User: What shape does this take?
Amino acid sequence: MMTFESWPVILKLSFLLAPFVVVLSGVAINAHMALTRDYEIAISSITSSPFLEQMKVVWGGRNLRSRCLLVGTIGGIIIFSRYHVRRGLLNPNEVRDFPAFLKRKMKISFVLTTVGCLWMLIDYLLIKR
Assistant: This one.
């Protein structure tokens, strides 16, 4: 069986750096939404979620970090909207009326970040072994 140590150096380097590139791409999309008009659209589109309203007060949305956290929270609410609607934490009309372009950006950001993190875990397990 071929071990990680026997791989060519360029392949090892690529395999180790690629998940960081994938994760940072997802984070960059999230930051872009937080810094543009997309942020205001997303914040004003979801008003029935008590958790989001509480997080708006806690994080404030004044700096990049808090805006990114709020965009990520909205992304989680939108991506897992069936769960929130079923529990009565979200109005189904708000999910339906949420802008499609923002929903797509949030899903892409979530997928890139999740895939990159899982890839890092695989890297770790492969190297540790």
